[in-house]
Amino acid sequence: MNRVIVVGVDGSDAATAAVEWAADDAARAGARLRIVHAVERTPYAMAMFSAQGQGDVMRSAHRVLSDAEAVAGKRQPGIDVDCELLQGGAAATLRGQAGDSAEIVIGGSGLGGFPGAVLGSVSTHVAGHVRGPVVVVRFGPGTGSGTAHGQVVVGLDDYQACEPALAYAFEQAMLRASTLRVVHAWRPPAHAHIPGRAHDLEEIHAARCRTAAAALGGWRRRYPQVPVIEDVRRAHPVDALISVSAQADLVVVGSQGRGAIGAVMLGSVTLGLLYGARGSVAVVRP
């Protein structure tokens, strides 16, 4: 299969981290790496520059791509890499790459060409609209960047939307020879402690454990080589996922939001995770 992994770059340190992440993933999956950089060349945008300034913009853009290609080649010398300099806005350009790509990778902060600040316009827009995996690579102090933990985490809920996320998480765990931690967080009903309407929280927890086991049965049989930890806990899903993110190489979450704008389409759990995660996050929309 001629799989393609797309990574957006802008010359920032975060983009360099994204290229390294994408190169490693391409090597694991036997995929081709496509490095893309966007330049706004509308008449309005280019009118802000002199003729010499426009030439400088294009030379800088080509340099961003060549530097990123060098990073990928040094990181994983055996992978196939191609570069594309595209015209348009960063978010729209990345969305346009989704059709033939296995995943899209963006840095967690940037300079402008692909400013993937974790809840900035580009990452929110792309993760909220593109079907399939969009990986936001966190970079900086306290993010665990460059550290291998040997664990992939995936959030499990009761929605069918989590099935693509489970497929991606199991595949990532298999390719990395890692353990997969499946986090299923639940909260008791608001009236659980009202006198006369007490709920047996232990029984609720046991029922949630059975739900998680049933949801994972088919995936366990499909990926028998992947060690699975079923982590069922009484907590808010965002808190549960953030608490394990620092010890994970990747946190995978599904998103079933249906709003008109990217931030709404991501859903509250996904947005909360992107705000607080201590490592890289993959958002997988069905």
TrEMBL record:
Record-annotated UspA domain positions: 1-138, 151-285
One Pfam family assigned to this protein is: Usp
Family matches, as SUPFAM superfamilies: Adenine nucleotide alpha hydrolases-like
Please list every transmembrane segment annotated in the UniProt record, as residue ranges. none
PANTHER family attached to this UniProt entry: ADENINE NUCLEOTIDE ALPHA HYDROLASES-LIKE SUPERFAMILY PROTEIN
Q: Which family does it belong to?
A: Belongs to the universal stress protein A family.
Q: What is this protein called?
A: Universal stress protein UspA
Species, as recorded: Spongiactinospora gelatinilytica
